[in-house]
Design a protein that fits this description.
Layout: H1 6-18, H2 24-43, H3 47-51, E1 54-61, E2 68-69, H4 71-82, E3 88-98, E4 104-116, E5 121-136, E6 139-159
Parallel strand pairs: 1-6
Antiparallel strand pairs: 1-2, 3-4, 4-5, 5-6
């Protein structure tokens, strides 16, 4: 009978330690909170803080437009939207699913995008979407954001006073 060497036992211990189970309930709560924080920041026009939530290789996929790739392109998109009269976006995360490995997750969300119409009224577009998050250095970063418009979910908000 062969007796395992001390090195083999050490290797088994190290490999076993690498496969620690993911506390999915804790990670799900963390991701839901991060999504809510990011939604609040989007209403405050905090571009640099918003960007800190995104991965460097992130992609935004808005309906009817080409993908926006990378943090700098996302920054330019955010700055452009901030200059759009009456533009506001907010969302509420609805569910989260974490991969077995614990390093990827997706969140289903419902969002509302408001803009001023040329008649001076604010219109709200209701959407559904998915955001994909990746864990980097023990921190979650938003990797992909994609959404589409629910049909017949445009609504007039109010007359804008100039």
């Amino acid at each position: 009978m062969k007796i395992p060497s001390l090195g083999s036992l050490f290797l088994l211990l190290v490999l076993g330690a690498c496969n620690q189970p993911v506390d999915k309930i804790k990670e799900e709560a963390k991701l839901m909170q991060l999504s809510r924080e990011l939604s609040k920041l989007s209403l405050a026009d905090s571009t640099e803080t918003i960007l800190s939530y995104w991965a460097d290789d992130a992609v935004v996929m808005p309906p009817g437009h080409p993908p926006i790739k990378g943090k700098m392109a996302i920054k330019n998109m955010l700055l452009d939207k901030a200059r759009t009269p009456g533009f506001k976006v907010s969302w509420e995360p609805k569910s989260v699913v974490i991969s077995k490995s614990g390093d990827l997750a997706y969140i289903t969300e419902e969002n509302q995008i408001s803009v001023y119409h040329t008649l001076g009224k604010s219109f709200i577009n209701v959407n559904k979407g998915i955001s994909i998050w990746r864990k980097e250095n023990d921190s979650w970063k938003k990797l992909i954001d994609i959404w589409n418009t629910d049909p017949f979910c445009f609504k007039e908000d109010k007359l804008v006073q100039n």
